[in-house]
Specification:
- With about 375 residues, the protein is α/β, with parallel strands linked by helices.
- It has two domains: about 140 residues, Sulfate adenylyltransferase (Roll), CATH 3.10.400.10; about 210 residues, HUPs (Rossmann fold), CATH 3.40.50.620.
- Helices cover about 30% and strands about 20% of the residues.
- The protein contains 13 helices and 15 strands.
- Strands 1, 2, 3, 4, 5 and 6 form a six-stranded mixed sheet that branches.
- Helix 4 packs antiparallel against helix 5 and helix 8 runs antiparallel to helix 12.
- It is globular.
Length: about 375
């Protein structure tokens, strides 16, 4: 099976029984927000291998400037822990301080190696290619506190996002049990439409198994809610996919909307899960018109071999002449014969109470979404003010 990124699957879960041995300073504990908490768990369980903690200054600067860690390992997005001015005064490099989840429960610790400031505009420009606050990733970065804390982390238990949350070592066992020597991973932040299905099955034709792994966590207003994405995929997989050739799990993480960089990031996470291949379609992790439709494919040609093979796909659509789902690569017919299952168009139809055509979305999936209560994320007042 494919090696984890960096050669070793990180495991920073120490168990509750070792908590006292760490000599943690509880009075200075840092309370994490939901995104920070999930990053902590992804570090500890190996999804972010080879990273073993929140990045220190040198690693942070290498990542934003060169898309590598200081040791040269490819890594495209900074995994950082921001703290307020008040918290900084209580932190001392070399000491271990507690980490609490968003509810205030002690779940782990960080051995502080460094506390440092950063230039938010420079970081935004490097990571997202823009400093425009209308970009949700930029806006999120600008809302962070002034200091980052670097250091190795420890977690006391294997916390789960939900019952679908299979850790990297568990998907690896699953793949081995099923005899999958090659596995293609598919990242999504949406409920599935027919183009997704076409691309996934095209990828599955080339390998032994398919891992569908929605990214669940903080998203922008108008995106599907987590439970709707999962429910929609359950409806699709149980009716139209071979059970022993597909697996459904989740990647708990916020969407960064970092376009090409996030495509690399998503591929490396699936490499750690045990995937040998990863699907990159049009506008992967894009938002509005900040990135070109195929920038996320081009970036894979600009860096060294990642150890996971990207599979590139063009537009997929329903052709009335071909009478089925096709792509531009295999269909010779004109635009007026094509029905493109646009995610934006499908959401608009559902929001208006209209059932999308079967040529755009499977009826089982569409009906499930239509019946769901509040299937989309609503805009908060604070977000409206920020815009």
């Amino acid at each position: 099976m494919i090696e984890p990124h960096g050669g070793k699957l990180v495991d920073r879960v120490v168990g509750e029984k070792h908590r006292e041995q760490l000599q943690i300073r509880l009075a200075e504990s840092i309370r994490l927000d939901q995104d920070q908490y999930q990053d902590l768990l992804n570090i500890a369980t190996g999804r972010y291998s080879p990273i073993e903690g929140f990045l220190d200054r040198n690693d942070f600067l290498k990542v934003i400037n060169d898309m590598t860690l200081e040791d040269g390992t490819v890594w495209p997005l900074p995994i950082v822990l921001d703290v307020s001015n008040d918290e900084v005064d209580a932190l001392t490099p070399g000491e271990k301080v507690g980490l609490k989840d968003p509810h205030g429960e002690l779940v782990g610790a960080i051995e502080v190696s460094e506390i440092y400031k950063y230039n938010e505009k420079e970081a935004a420009s490097k990571i997202f290619g823009t400093t425009d606050r209308s970009h949700p990733g930029v806006r999120n970065l600008y809302q962070r506190d002034d200091f980052f804390v670097g250091g190795t982390v420890f977690v006391f238990d294997q916390y789960r996002y939900n019952e679908f949350d299979l850790l990297p070592r568990e998907t690896r066992v699953l793949f081995e049990h099923r005899g999958w020597e090659s596995v293609v991973g598919f990242q999504t932040r949406n409920a599935p439409h027919r183009a997704h299905e076409y691309i996934q099955k095209s990828g599955l034709e080339r390998v032994d198994g398919l891992l569908v792994q929605p990214k669940l966590g903080e998203k922008k207003p108008g995106d599907y809610r987590d439970e709707v994405i999962l429910g929609a995929y359950q409806k699709l997989l149980e009716s139209y996919y071979p059970d022993q050739r597909t697996a459904l799990t989740v990647f708990p993480s916020k969407m960064n909307y970092a376009g090409p960089r996030e495509a690399i990031f998503d591929a490396l996470v699936r490499k750690n899960q045990g995937c040998s291949h990863f699907i990159i379609g049009r506008d992967h992790a894009g938002v509005k018109d900040f990135y070109g439709g195929f920038d996320a494919q081009r970036i894979f040609k600009e860096i060294e071999d990642l150890g996971i093979k990207p599979l590139f796909y063009d537009f997929a659509f329903y052709c009335t002449r071909c009478d089925g789902m096709v792509s531009e690569k295999v269909c010779p017919h004109d635009d007026d014969e094509q029905i493109h299952p646009s995610g934006t168009k499908i959401r608009e139809l559902i929001q208006n109470g209209e059932l999308p055509s079967k040529k755009m979305m499977r009826s089982e999936v569409a009906s499930y979404i239509m019946d769901a209560e509040n299937p989309f994320i609503e805009r908060k007042k604070s977000q409206e003010q920020a815009l």
